[in-house]
Amino acid sequence: MKNLHVIDHPLIKRDISMLRDKSTTSEDFRIVLRRLTSLMVFDVTKDLRLSSYKIETPLELTEGYATADEVILVPVLRAGLGMLEAYLSFIPNAKVGHIGLYRDEATLKPVDYYAKFPPNLSKSFVIVIDPMLATGGSAVAAIQYLKDREAANIRLSCIVAAPEGVALLEKAHPDVPVYAAVLDRELNKHGYILPGLGDAGDRIYGTL
Ligand code: PRP
Ligand code: URA
After folding, report:
1. How far apart are CA 46 and CA 53, in angstroms?
2. How much is the pTM?
3. Domains of the chain
4. Cβ-based neighbours of 44, under 8 Å, separated by 6 or more
5. Whose C-alpha lies nearest to ligand 2, atom 3?
6. What is the pLDDT of residues 103-130, one digit of tens each?
7. Which atom of ligand 2 is nearest to the CA of 187?
8. Which of 104, 120, 170, 177 has an alpha carbon within 20 to 30 A of 137's alpha carbon?
9. Which residues pair with 160 in a beta bridge?
10. Dist CA 33 CA 7 (whole Å)
11. Contact 189, 105 (CB under 8 A)
């Protein structure tokens, strides 16, 4: 699992525990998901390129920095939307592309129903956002969709990863790093992550 980066931090462990807890309400789930994503943004964006410029402090001239990469955030609908605002609060000039995918309950294969992207995918720093990497089918399909439109510099930001999903993604897209808050044990026979947190979209939007 060489493409997997698990971001290890006490505050991240605390927040995952709150998301796992079935008694956490949708209202609190959204708040904690957003806060947890904020804790992960720094690691996921650590390879952003900078440009330098001169700034005058009240005391002297010095070097300042601005981000040089154009960032495109790609939340996978629905659950990815729960992480989007955290990214936008740190990168307010990012563009957002949306991709709508749901898993067919019988086959567990992703079915696409929506896509809309900003231009310049080929030159941008692209972050695919989805809290759950289970079988990996949705992430593989979303990333393939982006590559078919010339995106080249892609990473996946998730919260809970299953070993099966990490392995599938590494096979299909070995160039794409995966950032996760935790690597869980396994999938159950319905494709849910164990111990997991349940259906992320349902937990966020109260559609249980
Ligand atoms: C969830 C999740 C991922 C997908 C992961 O979405 O947000 O997109 O499942 O599963 P996979 O790795 O096995 O493909 P879901 O299909 O439940 O759609 P939703 O967000 O609209 O509820
Ligand atoms: N999608 C989810 O939302 N949760 C899982 O455990 C697996 C797929």
Report:
1. 20
2. 0.97
3. 4-47+70-205 (3.40.50.2020)
4. 127, 155, 157, 179
5. 199
6. 898 999 999 999 999 999 999 999 999 9
7. 6
8. 120
9. 132, 182
10. 15
11. no
